[in-house]
Design a protein that fits this description.
about 190 residues, mainly alpha, Four Helix Bundle (Hemerythrin (Met), subunit A), about 0% strand
Length: about 190
């Protein structure tokens, strides 16, 4: 029987997947078009992760941690800064060298943010939030993320993928966020 995953496990698995995408982008050879396509995938994955954190992680931090309000605001400010970089990566006709600079900056800032959560925030949650509550939040985060899958599950060829529903290009970050938050329909 599969043991339910708690919120920390779900988010840590996301971090691992994002780090894998970072590595792929850093070593990718095959042209800028392929790199830009993979960057669109990265942006969608990062928005999915951010929405899950904003919906489940930060509220429990505010409610249960000493200085939780401040910690949540600091982490949310990181998200806004990272999202701003992602939006700059969407600019049409961005020269390759500027695209590379922004992508390196995005990867560096996101790695720092994830490490801070894993090293500082997650241990605080373990000390201050019951395991049962973390499991409930983890299941909610998993369920919310599965509704916005970006890759087909095995045998799930009939299901539209988020990246298929969201055409890449200008406004990808806003469209992905709106879709994931239920604020509107994705544009085919």
């Amino acid at each position: 029987m599969n043991r339910p995953k708690d919120l920390i496990t779900v988010l840590t698995e996301d971090h691992r997947e994002l780090r894998q995408l970072f590595t792929e982008l850093e070593v990718l050879s095959g042209g800028e078009n392929l790199r830009r396509m993979l960057t669109d995938q990265l942006i969608i994955e990062m928005v999915r992760h951010s929405v899950a954190e904003e919906a489940y992680l930060y509220p429990v931090c505010r409610a249960c941690l000493p200085d939780g309000g401040w910690i949540s605001e600091e982490a949310h400010a990181d998200h806004l800064r990272i999202e701003k970089i992602m939006k700059q990566l969407e600019v049409p006709g961005l020269p390759d060298d500027h695209f590379s600079f922004l992508l390196d900056w995005l990867i560096s800032d996101t790695r720092r943010h994830m490490s801070d959560e894993e090293d500082r925030l997650f241990p605080l949650l373990v000390k201050n939030v019951s395991e049962a509550e973390l499991v409930v939040l983890g299941e909610k985060a998993k369920r919310a993320k599965s509704l916005a899958a970006t890759r087909s599950p095995p045998g799930g060829k009939d299901k539209p993928l988020l990246h298929t529903l969201l055409a890449s290009g200008a406004g990808l970050v806003e469209r992905a966020r709106a879709y994931l938050c239920g604020q509107g329909k994705a544009y085919p």
